[in-house]
Amino acid sequence: MPRVEDTRLLTGKGTFVDDVMRPGMLHACFVRSPFARATITNIDTAAALALPGVHAVFTAADINDDVVEAWHAVAGKDIPDTPRPPLAVGEVKFVGDPVALVVADSRYLAEDAVDLVDVDYEPLPAVADFRKAVGGAAAGVPVVHEAYPDNVAGGMGGAPPDEELFATAAHVVSEHIYQQMYVPVPMETRGMVAEWSGSTEELTVWASTQTPHELRAFAARLLGIPAQRVRVIMRDTGGAFGQKVVPMREDMCILLAARKVSAALKWIEDRRENLMSAGQSRHVDGTVRMAFDEDGKILAADIDFVQDVGSYPTPYPVLTTAAIGMFFPGPYRVPKASFNYKTVFSNTPGLHAYRGPWQYETLTREMLLDSAARKIGMDPVELRRINILRGDEMPFFNPNGMPYDNCAPADTFEQAVKILDHEGFRKEQADALAEGRYIGLGFSAYIEPTGAATGHLATEGATVRMESTGKINVYVNGGSAGNSIETTVVQLTADALGADIDDVSTIQGDTAVTPYGAGTQGSRSAPMTAGAVNEAGTILRGQIIAIAAQILGVEPDAVELADSRATVRDSVGGEAKSVSFADIAYRSYYEPAQLGGVSPTLEATARFNSQAMIHWANATHVCTCEVDIETGHVTLTRYIVSEDVGPMINPNVVEGQVAGGTVQGIGGALLEHLAYDDAGNPVASTFVDYLLPTATEVPPIEFGHVEIPGPGVGGYKGAGEGGAIGSPPAVINAVNDALAPLGVTVTQLPASPAAIVALIEAGGQERSDRGIEQAGKDH
Question: How far apart (Å, rounded) are the C-alpha atoms in residues 160 and 340?
Fold first, then answer.
């Protein structure tokens, strides 16, 4: 079925935060630091306050002390957290750090007033390159936070590597791989409208968020008021991809300031602010190794890496950094694995979540496997085929204790190989090289935890109600963030009740009427929402059948539901006895006395508590490309994804999710780079410099599906993050395969034209030098 969201969105009838208008609404704009690190010696707000139409200018002294609690559910209240003040206190930590908040009659006035706020700074040395930050003061490097004198936010080590095995293995391959900083770039930037009612001491918030109930709870904690006095409304959200999972510092400022102004307060981030201040993603540097026996079987895998967490990270991605090490063995038969990492502060925006925040494990492992195949003298397809896990090996525990089950990575891999016509491509590649053309093939396989049932993510609620007309409303926490959860919920509810699709609607994103849920994150929406709808739907189905049986004069087990009707099963002779949902609802709402004592209740609320720790999805990505070795330009020629997300509720939705993530990964592999100079100044804060993939750069995506049911209701698995995880290494491997005849390997992302040309030229010089050296020896 087509998405139910599309009509309103494609006709401009969606309701985004910037569409929200309130009586006398005021507008906010932030004063932001122009320095990567500096001491704030004075803030003079007089000129700004004198501007007609300006209502207030808040500094840290005005609002920071109003914070009561500021922990996030994803970490919990007892987990130690890093500093996160609403406005900068004493020292700014990055270019774009919010220093003051201006409130005015319009955004135009607020921006004018921002220019009138006079902030005195004393610039200080900054450390923008996290790779140089470790050691802090002891190493002569600026310290980002005094509480962390070595600039190390945290770290973890697994089992130590088996160095004897690495020393004696038939083949050992190692690569040093750097992934650049890039970001989600949602079409809709961050935004919020907060309205405080002084008479009732209630707060209403309209937000661009992935987690309305968590935002409600966070706002209550922040302000120290009961949660029932906070209402969060999420309508349409124009993309998020992890950036809007947890409230950030600007959100805190708006919530705090809303109690101090005379009307609703709106803040809409502009694109430059989003690129400069909304946080950073990826940005990891590490060394990866694998040991193989003489037949190409993996003996051991090791990853040692450092991740940039910027200045004020949110807790979500910091917690998932460990997953890079835990998941590094991937969908392969790896007997031994080891990992070690550090998370490091720098004078850049804080790390935030982005579609598969542990994605570096797949990038490095899959790049390493292709490198290993070349060095061993084996096709990358054959090397993976030897090592990839089969369905008959499940359940399987990877060496770090991850319990794989209900999946068969070999199945998606072989399907992708078949769709490609591997042998045909290799022949085409050889013919192209003979013509002086460089074409390449890249594979990437991964296994991904979806719907992880940990902490507050392990439960989800739903309310399903048959209205007096017989139409069905289903209430869930979610909201339209591009993940088609509305369509999914409508389908699930119609199936659960035997209702016509057109008779079902959904109400979402309003904490005043929807049950608590953890929102859109962790590829959880399908498995967890399916569980919640099943729990509530099963109860309501039983109630509908009981009422129908009374009306029809039969036992409940004789009634079946379909097409928004209750029908007597196996009726003898004549037309089957039935009653419509509309008639059932009319009788229940308006003539309950005629139900013979059967409860007229046509509503059920229930919570799903997942007993499945993880729903393991997996996929294989395949990319082919051509590289122009004169210009360094990469043209992608084919892109294939074979994925297993269990039974698909809606194949169009699944493919849309995978395609969207794949395009983001292509951007990360070839184009996107949130770059900073050595002084910590952003050099890509507009779309002139921050390059996004367009339809020109992305070939049609071909899909294959393997449907292995997961352990939960319906067997559904998550599909939201996989595309962004699997695509970067597939693209880079294709580029490296094309450049292999030149002895060139990209190990630092992005693979921009300039970077490719530089590598080719450096490789050419090396080949020339080796030739001269060999000629001298021959002579």
Answer: 8
